[in-house]
Amino acid sequence: MWERMTQDVNVDDDTARRFLEEMLRIDIFEEETKERFGDGEIPGFVHLSGGHEGSHVGMGAAMRDEDWLAVGGARLIGQYIAKGVPLPEIMAELYGRVDGSNRGHGGQMHVADVDRKLYGHAATIGSGQNPAVGLALAEKVKGTDNVAVTTIGDGGTSRGSFHTALVFAAYWDLPVVFVIENNQWAISTPAESLSPDSLSDYGDPHNMATESVDGSDVEEVYRAVSDAIERARNGEGPSVIESRVVRLVPHFEGDKETYRDEAEYERLKEEKDPIENYRERLLENDVLTEGEIEDMVANIQDEVSEAVEFARESPEPEPEAAYEHVYRTPLYGQGE
Amino acid sequence: MTREITYVEAIAEALDEELSRDDDVILFGEDVEEFGGNFGETEGLYEKHGRDRVRNTPLSEIGIAGMALGAAVGGIRPVAELQFADFAATAGDEVFNQIPKQPYVSGGRLEAPLTIFAPSGAGIGAGAQHSQSVHSWLGNVPGWVVVTATTPYDAKGLFKSAIRDDNPVFFLPHKMLSETKGEVPDEEYTLPLGEAVVEEDGEDVTVVATQLMFHRAKEAAAEVDADVEIVNPRTFAPLDTETIAESVRKTGRLVVVDETVERYGTQGYIANEIVENEFFSFDAPPKTIGVKDVPIPLSPPLEQEVLPSADRIAAGIESLF
Fold first, then answer.
1. For chain A, what is the domain count?
2. Strands (E) located in chain A
3. Which is catalytic among the residues B130, B135, B174, B215?
4. Pick the CATH number of B2-185 from 3.20.20.370, 3.40.50.970, 3.40.605.10, 3.40.50.360
5. DSSP strand pairing (B54-56 vs B25-29)
């Protein structure tokens, strides 16, 4: 049996409570998503974020509302929540309904909310990083100090497009923070077969600041991403952060995970669950009581139930809506 | 009043005027600064507008196209050059999956007002990977506005509109036309996107043609014993089928000639659109003419063999009578 050492809480109590609450919000929302998907209410397929909640919440908390997030990898819903997209809009989008964030045109892999500076997702893994460089360029041209944060999984770092984005960001020292969520598995291909010791080493040839952190520790991710954002805002250019997380869920719902070692999987669940660990830590440091956490959970369950109700009651799109949003019309000068 | 300029000068003027008009417009691509572009299309722009507005990029179309998408979503109006239209394929995911689809999958909440421009077409002995006409590839992906240029007048007026349009626009000049000359108005002007234009009036047969093929169709029209109407689609996607249909209702005959490959090409699509909707206007079957189903070869006799010639177009027209 692995013994947890008591760890300090290095953020103020309000922030610590917010971290736990936000991680629980992701977890409870996703558990409900899994149920609704299992019951056939959600079309398509869903990838859940179990084990990545600390990374998502730490990153989200490090950003200002005005900073862009271009999400990547396959653990998406937690990132949408961490960027502040309301739960009902996310759930309705998973359901493919008109009140979804994307009016049902996108679904789980494409939640976009440009008003909240959520760019969305390049569902072809590894194609979101060059757009993130473009978002940073736009902010620079407009003279703001806003930055672009972009995530990718360990698998996506094998795409040439990821490395091109590093070249372009470094070329103009653009304010981009590349966060690699290394959960050890590109579906069934282990990251340990990749050659770098740390995937953040991919920033080294570009002379970027790099750091590899325990991504199951929300505070570590918060600190590392905050530092990288600070550098980017101060004109010190892009950074690459490896957030080492553990995938505590299948790649997608339905993946039988025949490729995983069961004993190792159980050990990781015991040791690396970001929510359970942080919960213990806040209790041990007297930041929260069991009762307060129970209230927090109950409140979130209510929020999630409301999101499901909202999604269920939202109408299905009219079939003709499939033809909307292909072009903004009239085209320039057309019909004048 | 008008004045005569070359096709490449028209492109450079469009860029210069839009950079001057709108601070949100920025231009980037490979060798667009001092070098001035492969055909001189960006000459003088970097000196006039500065390095913040006119930027050389590292050699990667993935980076150029991907950055253009993000910059457009981020609220500026990027104009990005690919050195050859064939290189749309080297940024395949950005060009086919990302740029045209992101506004749609966002449910219209995200806007991508970007322009990518790239010289297309064969005829300069550039070989199989620097000579293709790619508007059939792009036209097959809903979301792109696909625009071609046939004359200096078109090149300037359509390019300016492409830059101002709020959709992703792929603008395709033809490299063989670079040094051709034509009249443009002295005063500022733009030309509408999404509208075809009847360039030559005629009564007997409609020929649809753009870019270099337009000029060859004009030669062919002079050779044949028929009164030829030539329609220039200008925008290939979305296509203005009504202007072409109206012409066919008058002439009863249709030849579509285009420099894309015939197999699954633009010619068949355009002919089909008109046949399906105007079948009873036809006095003869439609005729489609394009690049033969081979890659573009290098040696001039081979290259000219596979491209539609004025003679081949003339023979196509005559086959309908």
1. 1
2. 68-71, 118-121, 148-153, 176-182, 185-186, 189-190, 209-214, 239-244
3. B130
4. 3.40.50.970
5. parallel
CB A224 within 8 A of CB A241: yes
Say if the Cβ atoms of B69 and A131 lie within 8 Å.
Answer: yes
Cα(B235)–Cα(A303) distance, rounded to whole angstroms? 49
Buried b (16+ CB within 10 A) or exposed e, A193-224: ebeeebbbebbeebebbbbbbbbbbbbbbbbb
User: pLDDT tens digits for B64-105?
Assistant: 999 999 999 999 999 999 999 999 999 999 999 999 999 999
Q: Which two tokens stand for residue B210?
A: 């753009």
What chain A residue is nearest to B114 in terms of C-alpha separation? A134
- A212, two tokens: 């590899």
> What is the Cα A324 distance to its own chain's centre?
28
Residue pLDDT, tens place only, A205-250: 999 999 999 999 999 999 999 999 999 999 999 999 999 999 988 8
Give the chain B residue nearest A111 (alpha carbons): B106
Range(s) within chain B of domains with CATH label 3.40.50.920: 197-318
Contact (CB<8Å) A333/B161:
yes
- B25, B77 contact by CB (below 8 A): yes
**Residue A270 structural domain:** 13-323
Question: How many angstroms from the chain centroid is the CA of residue A44?
Answer: 20
Predicted complex ipTM exceeds 0.85: yes
CA dist., res. B232 & res. B147, Å (int) = 11
Query: Which two tokens mark B53?
Result: 């507005």
Architecture of domain B197-318: 3-Layer(aba) Sandwich (3.40)
